[in-house]
Fold each of these.
Amino acid sequence: MKKRFILEGIECANCAAKMENAINKLDGVKEATVNFMTQKLVIEGEDEKMPIIVQEAEKIVKDIESHVVMKKA
Amino acid sequence: MKKRIWRIIIGAVVFAAAIIINIEWLQIAMFVISYVIVGGDVVKRAVRNIFKGQVFDENFLMSIATIGAFLIGEYPEGVAVMLFYQVGELFQSYAVGKSRKSIASLMDIRPDYANVKKGDELVRTDPDEVQIGDIIVIKAGEKIPLDGKVIEGYSMIDTSALTGESVPREVEVGSDILSGCININGVITAEVTKEFGESTVSKILDLVENASSKKSNSEQFITKFARYYTPVVVIIAALLAIIPPLIIEGATFSVWIYRALAFLVVSCPCALVVSIPLSFFGGIGGASRKGILVKGSNYLEALAETEIVVFDKTGTLTKGVFNVQEIHPEGVSKEELLELTAYVESYSNHPISLSLKRAYGKEIDNGRISDVEEISGHGVVATVDGRKVMAGNIKLMKMMNIPYFKGELIGTVVHVAVNKQYIGYITIADEVKPDSAQAIKELKAANIKQTVMLTGDNKSVGSKVGKELGLDKVYAELLPADKVEKLEELFLQKSKKGKIAFVGDGINDAPVLARADIGIAMGGLGSDAAIEAADVVIMTDEPSKIATAMRISKKTLKIANQNIVFAIGIKIIVLILSAFGLATMWAAIFADVGVTIIAVLNAFRALNVKNL
């Protein structure tokens, strides 16, 4: 399953890379990409683990850049 | 944003005042005040992030570097590092925001409403709710909301948002109009032919918004580099602060800590990490301004590495429209031959017949023609002005026992006889696009090693087009499956790093588009299959845009590489110099903020594709 999100207010490219890296390490994630310029996060993961993945991803985003809002695209 | 600017300005003023003042305690107090104004939030974030386990966070590094400078008594440096760091951050976010906005405005083609005609009234309707067959009215200056066909009115429309073409297009009754274009002057009434979700504007927005997030190699390299760079520099800084004072005689902690702090200032990888995606984003944005949609930065990168470009013929290098090429009369005038042929063929709707009627250009008078008989697979026999006219292929001439011209001819040939007397032939063929030859020439100039054409058409037509355009190789009489096979053969001929691009119109060649390293779809307007299968979509019908795309790609890559070499180079030089005590903290500030600003400005050049 593929889910797309908008990372509103993401300002630091290195943070985007850190988020991508951390989300990719989550259990059940096949591939996650953060596109800094388009502010998009795409997560491809196992269907049944998706709700947990999304929750964890949101936490990662908040931990790295607290003002970023993760919205469904 | 405004708040940040004011904080920097006020902080800078206090900082400047502190430098001038020479009452020591007051000076130190003012340095501390300006530091808090400028960098308070950085320190706050640093503390918070440590609790969240973000150790090598920029905020943390900057806080350590500046507080460390304060502790060893280097107050001005401490404040300056923070001040310039903030200036750099501000500049960065301004640049990123600006480039995001410029791309967004480029894609501002979504129509807000449609004027639907209901009886005598015009009702403003959400384009989503308009149905096929509804009648819509587009006034001057309005966006065309849905794809349709003009049923009333005449106007000029601006297609530049879709195609990058600046010359407006004329539309009249019967013309197809595409959503996303802007009606410039007249009022046009149109019948809707596609629902909003299927209309061109939706397809394109979908493509742009859901473009794959695949990253280029340079982007991947730089994020990987950043992941190791910061920890390594921080560890070296720590060792530098502790070890030399312990083992070197006479070395003091304050000197070596100063050097270590300079290291920390340079340890931030921001400049690099931001400037590379910014360059690619600029390149993709610039390309879309030219009517070239690139689905990801990896494809933009691959374009520059292309060695072989493979073309489909019909609809890609040629117009896909049949036209009369040669009129060769024997014993009659050209006009008479064309007139008779057009009359005989006037009852058919075959593309060949249509092209003859078009070439004739005058109204067909049905009273002059009678006894039309179509002989399937051969041609047509009819009586025109009382004379028995036969028009068709060689088989027809043979069947009627008429001697005909036997030389080699290219394209579809119509032989004509009157009362069993041969009067000549007309050839009809697909025409090459006006810029096809230019496209091949430009590709060669861009160092493409081979240009190849694949076609299902016969050999004589294929090799004629190949020669006319200067292609290196032509493979003719191919079935769609053969095209993939030929492409596989070509894969063996390229170098290891080289890429193969295939250019097609999406009709019958989706498998080839998918197999090539880069699938380029031409004339994306209207062909959904092409938009989906391709990696690059050229919105106009011009093959010369392929060379443009490659030039944009090369420029973007050059900028990205310049930034990589420049930023890493300066940082390493400053690191080495400061390890030996040859560079001050001021140099470190330049290596951080200065490099960021220069790299970002350089990245902005990628957006400018005017002269490409």
Amino acid sequence: MSESTNPRPVLDVIDLVVHFRRRARRDVVRAVDGVSFDVARGEILALVGESGCGKSTIAMAVARLVAPTSGRIVIDGTDVTSVGGRALRAIRRRVQMIFQDPFGSLDARQTVFETVAEPIRIHRLARDPEDRRRRVMAALDQANLRPPERLAQRYPHELSGGQRQRVAIAAAMAVGPELVVADEPVSMLDVSARAGVLRLMMEGRDRLGVSYLFITHDLATAWVVADRIAVVYLGRIVEIGPSPELVAHPAHPYTSALLAVAGGEEHDGPVLPGEAPSAAAVPSGCRFHPRCPRYVLAGEPAICRDEDPTLHIRGAGTGPAHRVACHLAQQDPMEETK
Amino acid sequence: MSLLEIRDLRIDYRTESGVLRAVDDVSLVVERGDAVGVVGESGCGKSTLGLAIPLLLAPNATVAGGSIRLDGTSIADLDERQLNRLRWTTVSFIFQGAMNALNPVQRIDQQILEAIRIHEPETSTATARARVVELLGLVGIAPSRAASYPHEFSGGMRQRAMIAMALACQPALVIADEPTTALDAISQDQILQLLRDLRRRRGQGLIMISHDLAAITRVCDRIVVMYAGVIVETGTTADVLGRRDAALGTIHPYTRALLDAHPDLHGPRVLAPGLSGHPPDLARPIVGCRFADRCAHATDHCRAVAPALVAVSRDHDVRCHFAVAERVT
């Protein structure tokens, strides 16, 4: 199943399904509906998609904050899908999470020092208080919160949005994780503050070999930051591949639509009609077919309405594979390369 | 006579840490059919500026100087009743969170109908009903969905309903504050397209306020860049974007940072440097250029003397000591 060249990925997600039963409406929301991917050591994988596509639910399942309906989550060779107690605590150190809202995720009554020291204390990583202080200062320094001695005394409300998010990163990195799950870490920050936070993530990968699962709605940022991109639509990965390859040669029409919008290209008329259907009413066959321009162009073939496409490999290159779930992907190579 | 003429506007907020000047000496002219984008980051004063035009400012805000003229009328001279009428018939507002701006317990078509009937008592019910149908069609809401409640709509549909509502009394000027911020990329694209089409077809004036320069450039033909309460650059969209790769002095370093902040899928696959630090505290006196602390080019002169807004070409002004006028040929 593993796609990366490394024999043992840091994270291997196999056939992940997360369904939520809504009693009041007597229906089932298929938030994550059969998703498989892996993340290699020192790799940044971006999950890109629009709100409600299930990307955040995937992140929460990986961080063990929501229970999967079925499927497996394997961290560095260990199946963690249903571990608890001490084993779960060990996982919690190795898999850290960074959230969208740095104001909501930091305790307003704790100083920066206390915020960063807490995970070190919980995971008993420091020999003594002096060692703990050293670790906190090092983490702050690495997160560009300088001078660390002064920043450590501040409270969240005294910091800018960018600084708060860097405190959250410092706290996550202080315990030496192997995988960081970052759910829209910059979308609430001012544009000029975003680069600093993203650069920290990239430094963590380059210097410490930390892996990231980077959740974002922003394809252009994913392209720059991530090694590979997985495009998520209505609970499924519809396309996955190395970032430069996926952006240069999108194979799925949904990826092409996201690219047209993200690239700011002049276009008359919206790139896609309508809106994504509810995950409680997933269309038959290919779940994208009701909005798919390629389906219309191809004369509405029955296969798109009847058969659920699986991810298949495109091209024969070396390195990580480029996969797409589209019945018509091979038939229209000219439009794909654009 | 211009549709909107703002001269030397100053707006102060009383806060716990003292008086804060959120908008400082801002001048802006919008003609009929113009689309002007006001861009800047949180706290730059762009939303305060928008709210000041129909005088919808928060209770702790005061207009400390300058004037706002709508269609030649100074809004400072109007009483509350006249202002209320003006707010729908001359200028209307599209807010960021459409869910909070729409009435949750009233059907969409009823809300628009009511807006017309309250603000245009002389309009007959039949005419008003016909206009509701036309407005909903204009923003792409099918007649079969017109009788829905706001919660039955997605975010994009609610924003469309909000736009129909803002157009209900055929205002000459529409102010849209972050109209796409809460939406997804595809819905954002649809709404931007809609705003563009509406302007072309109806000739309204539009002020679009956003932190998203890319969104603004898709809709607006003129850009106003605000930083720490002042305009640091203003010009046509083509002029400002055209200076993207030009030398310092023809574009403000802050505008360039905003332009570079978002990766360009057609450019190199690298992260822009971004800006360190944050804007100055507006409750304290500011000496020199407000951007100096975050500017890679700042000199002692920049830190000591505040620059003026200077013309670098016809209809393109930059507030920077390095700004140089282009040679006119």
